């Protein structure tokens, strides 16, 4: 590739159609994902997000259309595609009987990689799980379990990773942990396609967002481009109130909040005053 040339998309989807008997789930889906970016596929339950991810990851065949992942055709070269991707589903696929480290070592050995122990230790460090590495995964919190699940999916350094609703069922602090992990992945050059039904998740993470509705992409663009589709709101002075997430994280001592020190002192004082009046 010469200087200034636009890189080939890491994922290219064109005209994908999929039906289950009389139910048409995908009706001609088109989009592209650039290398090293985070692409969010946004849609409500039943929009076809998981079906599309299963097609992209070779687990399901499309009725029509073409898909290339990392330069390989999903239909004609499924083996090469599988070697270039990793898929993390809606629920963490860790073995709870094993420790976090043992989970990672097991996957490394299944991939026939040398130095499985060193690979496991490196991933534990990268995902801030070193201290918990020798604990059974059954003792992990939801956020830790999801981070371990994503770490397992990165063994072998796949250039493309699919995250299917990665924060389903997680509490607010665990969701923020996963968001930080996803951002780090993209920062290291991994292409991330994630599906979500959470608007704030797409806002926080995605370089580009595609809205999947009734089996087609009805809009695709950056967050700024999507916001330009609506007229600007009327400017009014409104006193900013803390969000529920900020209140929750402040009260629980979480690290993901953005509440300033003065607000935290005010919140703590209010909580104490209410306790004293009871």
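^ Assign residues to that structure.
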């Amino acid at each position: 590739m010469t200087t200034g040339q636009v890189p080939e998309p890491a994922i290219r989807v064109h005209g994908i159609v999929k039906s289950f008997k009389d139910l048409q789930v995908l009706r001609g889906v088109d989009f592209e994902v650039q290398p090293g970016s985070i692409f969010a596929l946004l849609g409500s339950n039943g929009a076809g997000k998981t079906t599309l991810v299963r097609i992209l990851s070779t687990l399901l065949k499309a009725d029509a259309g073409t898909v290339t992942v990392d330069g390989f055709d999903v239909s004609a070269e499924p083996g090469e595609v599988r070697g270039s991707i990793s898929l993390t589903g809606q629920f963490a696929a860790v073995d709870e009987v094993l420790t976090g480290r043992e989970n990672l070592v097991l996957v490394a050995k299944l991939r026939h990689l040398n130095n499985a122990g060193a690979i496991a230790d490196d991933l534990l460090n990268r995902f801030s799980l070193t201290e918990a590495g020798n604990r059974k995964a059954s003792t992990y919190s939801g956020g830790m379990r999801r981070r371990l699940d994503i770490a397992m999916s990165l063994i072998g350094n796949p250039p493309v990773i699919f995250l299917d609703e990665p924060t389903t069922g997680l509490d607010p602090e665990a969701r923020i942990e996963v968001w930080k992990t996803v951002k780090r992945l993209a920062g290291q050059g991994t292409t991330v396609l994630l599906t979500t039904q959470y608007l704030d998740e797409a806002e926080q993470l995605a370089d580009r967002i595609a809205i999947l509705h009734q089996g087609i992409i009805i809009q695709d663009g950056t967050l700024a481009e999507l916001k330009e589709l609506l007229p600007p709101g009327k400017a009014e002075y409104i006193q900013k109130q803390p969000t529920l997430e900020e209140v929750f994280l402040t009260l629980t001592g979480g690290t993901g909040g953005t509440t300033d020190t003065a607000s935290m002192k005010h919140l703590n004082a209010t909580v104490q005053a209410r306790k004293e009046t009871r």
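The chain has two domains: 11-94+140-227, 244-277.
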